Amino acid sequence: MSLTEQVMEQVMKRNPNEPEFHQAVKEVLESLEPVLERHPEYVKAGILERIVEPERVIMFRVPWVDDNGKVQVNRGFRVQFNSAIGPYKGGLRFHPSVNLGIIKFLGFEQIFKNSLTGLPIGGGKGGSDFDPKGKSDGEIMRFCQSFMTELYRHVGADVDVPAGDIGVGAREIGYMYGQYKRITGLYEGVLTGKGLTYGGSLARTEATGYGLCYFVDEMIKAKGKSFKGARVISSGSGNVSIYATQKVYQLGGKVVAMSDSNGYIYDPEGVNLDTIRRIKEVERKRISEYVKYHPHATYTEGCSGIWTVKCDIALPNATQNEINKESAEILVKNGCWAVGEGANMPSTPEAIEVFQKNGVLFAPAKAANAGGVATSALEMTQNSMRLSWTFEEVDAKLKEIMVNIYKNASEAAKEYGYEGNLVVGANIAGFKKVANAMLAQGIV
Ligand code: NDP
Ligand code: 2IT
Question: Which of 104, 113, 125, 280 is catalytic?
Answer without folding.
Answer: 125
